[in-house]
Amino acid sequence: MTATWVLMGAVGLATAGLLVLGVLGMRLWLDVRGLAKQVDTAAQALTGAAEELGESVESVRG
Q: What are the pLDDT digits (tens) for 47-59?
């Protein structure tokens, strides 16, 4: 009888642990997705700034 309760407790703890890992995985995925969007925005801004700098250098030279 005691072994049954121990087994049920172990299964319950394992299930709770998997749920916690799932929630943490979802949060990590959302954080990475948000960070990727920010990096993409920054890369686009740098590209625009580089193009403007290139145009101004060409106008000074030419």
A: 999 999 999 988 8
